[in-house]
Structure formats: structure tokens, C-alpha cells
Amino acid sequence: MTLVSEIEDKRNVSEVLPYSREEEYRLAQQAGTEAVMVGRETLATVVHQGEQLRNAENIVDDTLYTVDHANRLLRGMTWSGWLGNKFSKPLNPPDHRNLNNETIEERKNILKPLKMYDNVPEPCVAAMQSVQNYHLNLQVFENCETDEQKGTCKFICDDMSRQANLRITELLAGLETSQNDSSNPSSQNSENVDNTKDFALQLKGELSYLRQQQLVLHQITRGVTTTTTTVDEKMKLFNNKTTNKTTNKDAQEDSSITNEYAAQEEHLNILGEQCRELGSLAGNISISAEQQAEVVDSLNTKNDGLYFKMNVMNRRTERFIKDKSWGQQKADFIYYASILHKTSGCYLSIAPNNDSTLILSNILNEKSIFGIYKRGRVLGLQNKYNRQWAGQDMFGKLTCSSSSFNRRQEWEAGGDDWSTTTLLVVSKGWGAGGYLLLDKEGKGTLPIIGGGDFATKEQAPEWCISEFNEPH
After folding, report:
1. Fewest CB atoms less than 10 Å from the CB: which of 34, 169, 353, 460?
2. Alpha helices (runs of H) in 76-124, residue ranges in sequence order
3. pLDDT band at 255 (very low <50, low <70, confident <90, very high)
4. pTM of the model
């Protein structure tokens, strides 16, 4: 039988049995105790999950380091890659998120040292100064000794947190307005605006971290100090009042009232302690959940980067194996297809006045149709009109002028679903690959080969490769 049903049973038989205040107190305290126990178990589970997430992130960091090292070794197996490795910095082992390597003195301090910023954009100076002032006052709050000092510092820190948040919010709103207003001269320099916005978002993240640490300091302060009046002190006040006002009343009635008041005060104090502990548990659970959300976001980004780097390593490995093999795998014809740029609705095609140049065209004809060939995991694109293969030439430029399906004409699509995919020239960047982009920062009509890093992948346009059936 649960506690709720037990309380309901007590209420149902209240007409039969005499009212028992002590039993009601006991049931209420029992419910509070069970709530505290559930909160403690929940907090322990959340902390354990946080440790598992941090361990998972550490494993991903180690895997990323291993994949980067493998890519460096594969690149060094070619003369150009070996020369590139000579002029690049060696890889450093990852810094894990756990605190096993911290010193004892560092573990005593909840707040990390004051963060210094270099090359602060001019619009962000005031917001940066507000965040640093807030950080410095939190350090003072952490070292306060008396309750009065802690109360004063808490009030100051709350006010500084609001001021810093207000400055950052106004800064981001101004930047958003500047980007949307094309007539504003400051909006013309998009690079400076982006840098300022990135720095403002960095300040916002730092302010969020400091606010979480202030909540931790509040919980510690509550656990050390207490401002409640004890039962004995309240009993003395009550006895003094009843002695002065009820001198002629029966002593037994006074004793009964006094005992009832003492039991009530003890009951309220017990419930108060349980509520304070529940509040502390709720605050710690909230902080742990926010930290776990941060770790999950970091894991999501790192997993995407790991998947991307694994594909780079696979492409370089296959290229190295092909260079060492005697024969070449046969390419299988899949079907004729159109390649649609999903944003503009235009088709990848060869130019009307130059069969070797690829462009975007809003006309679907024979020049916009490509034969799709597959060899292993790579694709080949042969234009149906001039029977030439698309790829990069010996100078690294995009062209459709090769008479055979060689290594420079190898393409790769993003996954098995070609209705929404990116396109990548495999041979670009010594096997790292280069994504098919558009000129004028993605707003033009001339396809070009871009970089093969993760940032370029995020900017690469989406294409739709769909089978073309000739009308009968």
C-alpha cells in the first residue's frame, strides 16, 4: 500500500476514529522523507549519467586523435603529403573533460581563474568588462566568511549578472539588426559582424557558466548557515506571553497548549529542513542536467566530425590501395539522371558555347543529363551530350572534358539517399576530397571545387540525383 492510499484510508475512517494530530504529523514527515530519498537517488543517477557522458566524450576525443594520426600517416605515404607533414605541427593528445589531472588546490576552488580575452571587438568591450566584473565578484563571494558578507555579495552578484546579460542581449540584437539592414554601412563588412557575433556568443556561454557556478555557491552557503529560530527559543517566547496573559487559567490547559505548540513547531522545523534539502537537490539536479546538455551538444558535434574524418581516411586508404594494385575495378552503369540544385531549382549542365565547362541551367535537355556509373563506393558522371566525364583537370579546376573514367573523375555522394546529397570530387586535396560548391559564395551559377574540411561540408549545397526517363 502506498503512502497516498494510506493517507486516504486515514481520512475515510476519520468519522469512526478520533482525530490524531500526531498521526497526521507522522504521515507528512514520512512523505517528506520519502521525497528527499527519491531526490537523492535521482541526483545520484544524474551524476552517474554525467560521468558516463564525460567518459563517452573522452573516448570520442581519443578516437578523433587516432583518426587524425592515421590520416597524417596516410598522407605521409605520398611525396607531397610527406613534404606537407614536415611543415605542419605534430598532433597533440586530447585534453579530457574529467578532473583527474587537477591539483588539490584547483579542486578546492569552484570557480575557474579569470578568463582574459585577446583582440576584443570594439562593440563587445562593455559586455566583456561586465562579464569579468561579475566573475571577480563571484570570487569574492566564494571567499566570504560571515553570513552578512555572503548576503551582500549575493545581492551584488545577482545585479551584475542581470547587467551583463542585458548588455549581451542588446549587443546581439544590434548585430542582428545590422545584418538585416542592407542600407547600414556597418552591415557591409560581414566578416567583422560575424567575428563580433561569435565573440558575443562566447561571452554569453561564459556568463551561463558563471551563473551556474553561482547557483552551486548558493547551495553550499545554504548547507553551512541557518537562520531559523530553534524550538527552544520559540517556546521561551510563547511561555512568556502565556504567563503574562493567562495567569488565572488552568495549568493543565496551559501545559496542553504548550505541548501542542511545541509538537507543531518541531513538525514545521522538520518539514522546513526537508524542503530546504529538496530545494538544494533540485538546484544540483538542474545544474547537472545543464552540464549534461552541454556535453551532449559537444558529443553531437564531435561525432559528426569523427564520421567526416573517417570518410576522409577511407578515401585515402582506397586511393593508396588502387595505386598499389595491378588492375582496376570495372565501373557499372546505373542509369541516366539529372542533377538538380535544390535551392535554385536549376540543373547541372555543360555550357552551350563550351562543352567542357559546367554551369547551372534552368533547361532540362540532353546537356543536363549524366550517365551515373558506380565503381566501389565512388561514382562517375558522364555527360550524355558530349560523352565526356566530369571531374577535375590536372590544374585542379572543375571540367567535363575527360574521355575516360580515371581517378580525377571519381565522385562521392553523401550516403545512399541521392534525393538530398552533397557531391564531392574524391581526388581533390591528395585524396581528402573537395565539395562541389557554387561561385560568389554559393549565390552564383558556376560550379567550383571547394575544400574538403568539415566547415566546407556544412556550407556545401544539396543536390538531387534522380533517374531520367526519356519520353516515348
Report:
1. 353
2. 79-86, 104-108
3. low
4. 0.54
